[in-house]
Amino acid sequence: MYDARSRYVAASVETASPARLLTMLCDRLLLDVQRAAHALGAGQRPQATQHLAHAQEIVAELIASLDVDAWEGGPRLLSIYTWLHGELLSAAASGDAERVDACARVVEPLARTWHEAADAVARTAAPAVPAPVAAYAATAAPGAGLLGVG
Questions:
Q1: CATH number reported for the structural domain that contains residue 34 in this entry
Q2: What are the tens digits of pLDDT across the range 6-46?
Q3: What's the domain count of the chain?
Q4: Which one, of 49, 20, 23, 26, lies nearest residue 36 by Cα?
Q5: Which residues are CB-neighbours of 103 under 8 A, at least 6 positions away?
Q6: End-to-end CA distance of the chain
Q7: How many CB atoms sit inside 10 A of residue 121's CB?
């Protein structure tokens, strides 16, 4: 079961667009922060620390891949990522559930925003109908499908 799941996840990552990879990272970041909060609430600090460490790795990757010069909001996004990384480190070191909750309150809308941006990119990048197909459709008999069948 685990091998099949691992292969599925690996294939999903390998074939994902850059926008989809970003949303996958943000979704996992949110899941890690939520799991850490739950673990701290249940008194399971070692598990919380593991989830926070993984969340830190994700934020570090987001920082490393961010091109702050690509758009005017880049430096502000970098400051959010940097703050988030520091808070995750502090929360892991101290076991501070309030810090974890504060991180979750930042990550959740951030993940939602990245999903909205990825959806917008996907809508604008939708493949156009090839010219020969469009020309055929214009001359085909009414009610005939692409292959000439109703």
A1: 1.20.120.340
A2: 776 677 667 778 899 999 999 999 999 999 999 999 999 99
A3: 1
A4: 49
A5: 33, 55, 84, 87, 88, 91
A6: 44
A7: 13
